[in-house]
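BACKBONE GEOMETRY TOKENS:
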Amino acid sequence: MLAAAGCSSGRYNSDYNLHQALLKERGKLPADVLASADSAESILSAFPANKEDDKKAKKKKANKRYFMGLKVKRGFIKSGRGNREVVETYSYLPDFIQPDEYAPEKWLLDLKKKDIVSLRTADPEKHRLLHGPYIKRINDEIVEEGYFYKGTKHLRWEKYNQNGILLDKEHFDKGFPRDATVTYYGDTKKLKEVIPYEFGELQGTYYKFYENGEVEWIGQYEKGKKVGVWIKHYDFRHRRHYEYQYPETAYDAPFKPYLIKEYDRHGTAIYEKDKFDNRSAQR
């Protein structure tokens, strides 16, 4: 079963893991406390100051089957052998609920395959939403850890190499970059645009939505520049319409984006650069 997200001895290469180690030494606190501990102040406030507080903390520990107010179940997946054995521990909501339609990625537990998948839609008969701590280990070394909230990445996510060196750290707010600028259609809760920022610079995944909730545009920013393939969709069934190519990285020489693929409303490719062009047959 899943242990509270933490790190092994000596792996204090981030403030978050140092805090987790301190919590472990003080006595394992519930995942809800760890999830909220994103600053030194919140960590210190989690330590009981007297016996009465200590009793309350022990009582709260009995509710470790809950994460952010929702009851969860826990499980694990093993694959590989020997020093390449991979173990993923996770929490999920035992009762099916529909994920947020605007969530950019929906992380689910496939009940039949006993596997973690990322899909556009969830099937009540096959899937359950991941919700709570997640840890991935290779040969008993943590290589990734974070939290899910109703099927979306939430709070801080970190990746390491097998020597315990921090490789990447991201912050999420229910699936979107924490520092993103989010706009809506009028006074509604319908998302219109998600513009990703890191340290005041365009960085990360950009989304633009139709008013019906379907994704219109999706693409990547790197150091303030559009990079890779940007995709425009039709306003139904997440079907692609156009794919435009930008420089692969922010360091590549800039050029005017060009069309590499086009699809009809049935999802059939009618154009692919330097291969075929059936667009005239659609007119």
Observations:
- The longest helix spans residues 15-26.
- The mean pLDDT is 83.
- The chain has two domains: 15-175, 181-282.
